[in-house]
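User: Teach me something about this protein's shape.
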Amino acid sequence: MSPLETRLSLIVRLQCEQDELAWREFVSQYEKFLQQIVRRQGVPEALVPDAVQQILMAITKSLESWKDDGKEGSFRRWMHTVARHVVVRFMTRERKQTTGAGGSDPLLALQTIESPPDKHLLQQYEHELIVWAAEQVRHDFLSTSWTAFWATTIEHRPVEEVAKDLQVSPGSIYMSRSRIMASIRKKIQEVME
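Assistant: First, the predicted structure itself:
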């Protein structure tokens, strides 16, 4: 078994929240991996344990949504995606809750300045969330519908060109795109809740 693979039996055991031994084994195996993700996203060292705890809770709640994509490291990639989403929410909450101590005027002035969100980080997060959700719902649709969706929505190819290539009507592409986007939005909403 490759170091990127996770034993399916462990994942199944994790779905039973009372299996304390499985969770200990899981934390022992993945805590450092999750800490690395958290640190790479710029979480201050003092908050790393709290962020990892939040990630573990999110994994517990959304474990049933994981589906093996048949590629090496499927579970780790899924965990990485969950972790990134949790860290963004975690850091957003931390920024809102951060308050200064003391009472000096400069400190009060600094507290009134809102730090702008990192646009690049937010765009990357949104993009990865959409790609992850798309992979989660991909198998719910015919390959022609999926190909048309991907070509017109992600690759930005003209609908008429894709319709001609796939020998389908432009109307069927619009319908497929609409259904797939609705499914992606629903999957994202499930994860965010």
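Now, about its shape. The radius of gyration is 21 Å. The chain has nine helices and no strands. If you'd like, I can walk through any region in more detail.
User: That's plenty for now, thanks!
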